[in-house]
Amino acid sequence: MIFYIGAFGLVLIGFLIMMTQKNVFKIVIGMSIAETGVHLFLITVGFIKSGLAPIIYDLNIDKLAEIKFVDPVPQALILTSIVIGVATLGVGLAFIINVVKHYKTEDINKIKELKW
Amino acid sequence: MKKFIAVLIVVVIGFYFYKSLNYFKFGAEREGVYTYYNSHAVSDTGVANIVTSIVLTYRGFDTLGEVTILFLSAIGIGALVYGRKEKVLKETCFIIDTSYKILFPAILLYGVYVFLHGHLTPGGGFQGGAIIATGLMLRLVTVDKKWNEKMFSFLEGLSGLSFVLLGAAGLLLLGSFLANKGVLGLGVVKNLFSAGIIPLIYIAIGLKVGFELTGIVNNLKKD
Questions:
Q1: Per-residue pLDDT tens for B79-97?
Q2: ipTM of this model?
Q3: CB distance B217 to A94 below 8 Å
């Protein structure tokens, strides 16, 4: 339970940062934090009690059916997700550099076109 | 007022997260695809790391898409910073210069180790590529030389192409894209030269990710 609370806590902290901060860089960092929380949550879902890491390097191959591993599918998905997170973070930062250079400010309240 | 609304929204989202926890029992037993992977992955692919076997064979097409997304984002960043000049560092710190000389070969070696042993130990192409990229970034902030971007993008494209070609070899020989069993032979499990084309694909991915991340950081550095 405490693991789920930690993961969801990260997601909620990220949302809060995205909604309350005015600095564009801080908004992107909040997005990154929320993403980390989602990764942590999916890894936690894959856990199985007293399960081993799904690597058989030190184990006997013939007795694999008796060994209990944790679920390897979420781990493989998170591997994909982390890389895509880095890619989106890079594109977001490149956009922000352009925006900051164009408007000469980092405050979203002073960027008129962003108002809603 | 806006902050109050934000906190309210977060509280509501948190409440529904808490309600949904009933569906995810922590550490519960499970069946289905999990059982298949854990009992068949080693005999199917000859890989000692089950996560690697899922990433590169069962979900190998997905990984190809992932590499494509990384490539597209690198292109996007290159387009966004197009026309900016390379920033040449005037002077570099003595500590960073010295540690660069000592650490750079070690970091590269470690990165290569991580992606060469991706089918045996924790790690793999993406992680090893990221480690290589950190080494090259260290070069980026120390050495005062012009960066040979064209060479890097050429190597990056070559490693991406070799991933597709290795997949196409399976298509030609066995009739399915990224087929592993029978293209090179699986070898003995837990050996360095085993698991068919998986180590070759991870070498390609490692080099591609390393050069790609370095290119992204180099582009973001431009002024």
A1: 888 878 777 667 778 888 8
A2: 0.81
A3: no
